[in-house]
Write a structure and sequence with these properties.
Elements: H1 17-32, H2 57-75, E1 90-94, H3 100-108, E2 113-114, H4 119-124, H5 144-147, E3 153-156, H6 176-188, E4 195-201, H7 206-217, E5 219-229, E6 232-241
Parallel strand pairs: 1-2, 1-3, 3-4
Antiparallel strand pairs: 4-6, 5-6
Helix pairs in contact: 2-3
Amino acid sequence: MAEHHPLRTADQEPKTAEFASLNAAAERRAKECRSAVMPSLKHLNFRDYDRVYEPSDDTYLLIDAIGYDVDATEQSEGDDGTMLHSNMLQTIEIGCGTGTPTVYLAKRIRGIHAIRIAKATAESNGISTEHFQAVQCDLASQLIEKMEGKVDVLIFNPPYVPTPDDEVGSSGIEASWADRALPQIARLLAFPNGVAYMVTVDDNYPEQITQTMDELYGIKVVPWLRRRAHNEYLTIQRMTPTRPFRKTNINE
């Protein structure tokens, strides 16, 4: 990560036993999963990392979470509707940087069509860029009209800006990614099998994000993999729609 945060305070502890149990399960899952093999970044140099974020602990946990679901799919005889499989063709990575998570997914599931990706990383890893399109825009704003309700996999490693509950719904820049990215995620995910993976730290107040996504958009959020990195906890939040997006929910 580009920055570290203080250890969580008392008000950042889970408010319910249920969420604490979900966090504990995510920690166990992170210990049990295979370590994902990082895509090659040999094409990048030090100057490139002045412009994009260098993969770190959060990136590793993110691709571990994706790999966990791909492994679960490969080991399963059936499809429970939430696993990652070759029929999931539409993928968006918001704020892709090096494109590491999407390239990892593309290597694991051949034929995937990525909307946001660093093409050089794909090419360096032997992934054809014929069906890859990189779009420079504000979050996924320019993609919503075309991709609403069509995205099978969405990946988001947001900036580490605290988003406590009193900031979700505010108009300040401090709430920019939470207040605007969350409804975009809800609009983009395909129902019923779309899945999003989002990185959070505890000072993002993920339990509040979970409640907001459920109440406003019918998106189920589960802490999926969780691991301590230096002085903070990183968690991959796994999001799946429980109903189609309703136009009346638009709040951007």
